[in-house]
């Protein structure tokens, strides 16, 4: 007896092992087995097939051990893995690595993780003791600041129960404090650290379906249309403006699926969004709801995986991209919310799959229906809906008749010329922000760039510090007082003088969210400011804290990157400021306008969601651009018409399929020669469909020089043959001794 085994390695295909007679009764498809590989390594593999065909040309090794009694992988999952591997041109071992939690890939199982928390020591839990502690720290300002931040974050300064106020150490580090400072506070006996097991399954209490709110007339009409559409279409697009109540329609559809004893997968693009939606769904579905995303501990993800294979799985799974890879025993409905979001596409590492496309394929394999929901559909989805491939349901009325926000465009080019700008803020934005804060309302400021400043520059000679390993300038982070490469993560000390000319006058250029926060604090010292970007949300708790503080009104001015554009629902936001629309428009990519329209429309949708019409201040140097006017008038149809003609003319999606071919090598002139060679080989088969090789926007990352080839493939072309030929050329290139250590990989349907 032989078994074909999938190993968690970036190698194509499966590996055949023989089964010792003593283990023959134990082997089944989907079980994990311990197998030898190479001279002295062992791996945990998964049985993909059992057969009696002895492989030719080599002696098989025996499997060493069967690790499971029942399969940890369902047949439908294995089928999906093969589809992902084939379609996205990624070794199936990479799919295995991406899909399974680490604890299921390890030889010794998983151990629940613990997280380091900090709290006040018992002797400093009284108000009098806290005053003494703060006075004690007068001569150690960095420690005093860290201690005060701890009190603010735990709510102790607002009278919250001091003994039960807890905070992860990471959250305090996120505020810009060092480990040395925190350890000093522990050494002084003011704070103490303790470990706590993290990653508990959701025990959301008893379900309360009676809490489901009745739908308004427009919502009910959309709900009925979706049901009718599902009679003839497997996939339906719900195109509903921001705040039209799409989530409530989803809840009704979920309840209907549960009544049919079916499971539901509810996908969201960002972990940040799961916080708010989780609370709404938990309120109704209680412990029938499971949450799954990458910020959860590995132990918890293992437990959810195992629960989904048990006799009592979660009926509803709410999660980000990776949730599509979970086991489902009886899937009836898939909801892909904010379907336009680029976060659904996995970039690095492989497999570079799109969760929306994967969810549609999964649903089709299992006979389930898929609902795609958004206010700003992707061009491909909207095209599929308009041409009849998908069903289309439109909902253009906001819940309770609230008007869409008024969008006022501000020409910052003119204001800069007249020296009327206050840094990145126009007089109108500052005035409206002040008025909103005085009325007790909330404000959101959107700047799609993190850090303090995108770069620093020598005032005398123009020198700009660049990353040693990547072809990019370094971002300045003032809180940490360091320069960071946002591509490889490498950090550098800020130079005291210019290494090119010796000038000591190094100035920051541009604005990141950190600098916006500092300037807003100066202008509105009374504002309670929060910042939401990759730097402030590194831990799972940080997301929840920022969102809950803003929802509860503990903060009233939120500054953020694209994270804040993604479907978050805040009652009291009356003003939204888009600080620089041009930074999204001036990007060398055919999707730049599509992404810019979506982002501006989504950010605008955060304004005036309950009770009154909101105001959006859109700052730009190009106020007459048709795209800006389409955002102002919420004219998605006009935007689509203008873009779709261009896409057809220049052979872009949705009319043509794209495959990007990337080549990476440490030596630039070699990767250039390799790119030319691969381009000529591909043209032998694909002809003029091949463009390049060219340098991408960032042509060096992590010391590897990059070249990119583009394939534009017309409808009807045989994709199986395309993939076969691409794999053949890749193999030929890698076997050529001249191209030792060359990396070649593909990005199918890139974003």
Polypeptide structure, described:
Helix content is 34%, strand content 21%. With 751 residues, it is an alpha/beta fold. The strands form 7 sheets. Strands 11-12-10-13-14-9-15 form a 7-stranded parallel sheet, sandwiched between helices. A 6-stranded parallel sheet has the order 16-26-25-17-24-23, with helices on both faces. Helix 1 (75-87) crosses helix 2, helix 1 crosses helix 12 (355-366) and helix 8 crosses helix 9. It is globular, with a radius of gyration of 28 Å. The mean pLDDT is 91.
Q: Could you give the topology of this structure?
A:
Layout: E1 2-6, E2 15-18, E3 32-37, E4 41-51, E5 65-66, H1 75-87, H2 92-99, H3 102-105, E6 114-120, H4 127-136, H5 141-154, E7 167-168, H6 169-173, H7 179-187, E8 191-197, H8 217-232, E9 235-240, H9 246-259, E10 263-267, H10 271-285, E11 289-292, H11 298-309, E12 316-319, E13 331-337, H12 355-366, E14 369-374, H13 379-386, E15 391-395, E16 406-411, H14 412-417, H15 427-438, E17 442-446, E18 455-458, E19 475-477, E20 482-484, E21 491-493, E22 506-509, H16 513-523, E23 529-532, H17 540-551, E24 557-560, E25 573-578, H18 582-585, H19 592-604, E26 615-620, H20 626-632, H21 636-649, E27 657-665, H22 668-686, E28 690-694, E29 700-701, E30 704-713, H23 719-735, E31 743-748
Parallel strand pairs: 9-14, 9-15, 10-12, 10-13, 11-12, 13-14, 16-26, 17-24, 17-25, 23-24, 25-26
Antiparallel strand pairs: 1-2, 1-4, 3-4, 3-5, 6-7, 6-8, 18-22, 19-20, 20-21, 27-30, 27-31, 28-30, 29-30
